[in-house]
Amino acid sequence: MSTWQEMAKDAPEFAERVRSRFAAGTNKTLATLRADGSPRISASELEIKDGEVTLGMMDGSLKLRDVRRDPRVALHSPTIEPPKEGEWLGDAKLAGRLVETPPPAEGAEPGAGYFRLDITEVALTYLGTPADHLVIESWHEGTGWRRRTRA
């Protein structure tokens, strides 16, 4: 598993574009796995700070129960409607495993869960120039950054 810092060191320009997509709005989409293996999506907030992706979950939440049982998750950046004309900056995605961390020294809520993401995959999808093709940039642990296009 890799940290945000390790991924960003390997592909700094890509990491900055992904960071900007996640910073485009407060609510991100978190996908977790229910006890029966089916997916659950929930709104979540996260921070990319000090070389790590971190997030917290309220005590008693279903997503907290999910990740304490199975830490595999995927996160999607806020979805911003593409403009009628002009550049669409795209969507970003992260995947990996959450690792529970100690609560912050101040402001911790009793029973809440605090986590960092160990990253296995990062993706950024956007329209190319001219806007007649899709660009998919990705980073995978062990293979690094790559760029592909689709017409």
How would the blueprint of this fold be written?
Blueprint: H1 4-10, H2 12-22, E1 28-33, E2 39-44, E3 47-49, E4 52-57, H3 62-69, E5 72-76, E6 91-100, E7 113-127, E8 134-140, E9 144-150
Antiparallel strand pairs: 1-2, 1-5, 3-4, 4-7, 5-6, 6-7, 7-8, 8-9
Main attributes?
43% strand, 17% helix, alpha+beta, single chain, Pnp Oxidase, Chain A, 3 helices, globular, nine-stranded antiparallel beta sheet, 151 residues
Offer a concise description of the structure.
This protein is globular. It has a single domain, classed as Roll (Pnp Oxidase, Chain A), CATH 2.30.110. The protein contains three helices and nine strands; from the N terminus they run ααββββαβββββ.
Helix content: 10-25%
The fold-level CATH name is Pnp Oxidase, Chain A
* SSE class: alpha+beta
| β-sheet strand percentage | 35-45%
The low-pLDDT segments are: none
Number of strands: 9
Q: How many domains, as an integer?
A: 1
Query: C-alpha Rg, in Å?
Result: 16 Å
Largest sheet: 9 strands, antiparallel
**Which second-level CATH architecture applies?**
Roll
CATH class: Mainly Beta
Structure, explained:
It is a single chain. The termini are far apart. The protein has one domain: Roll (Pnp Oxidase, Chain A). Helix 1 packs across helix 2 (12-22). 17% of the residues lie in helices and 43% in strands. With 151 residues, it is α+β, with helices and mostly antiparallel strands. It is built from three helices and nine strands. The protein has helices at 4-10, 12-22, 62-69; strands at 28-33, 39-44, 47-49, 52-57, 72-76, 91-100, 113-127, 134-140, 144-150. The chain is globular. The model has no long low-confidence stretch (mean pLDDT 94). Strands 1, 2, 3, 4, 5, 6, 7, 8 and 9 form a nine-stranded antiparallel β-sheet that branches. Strand 1 and strand 2 form a beta hairpin.
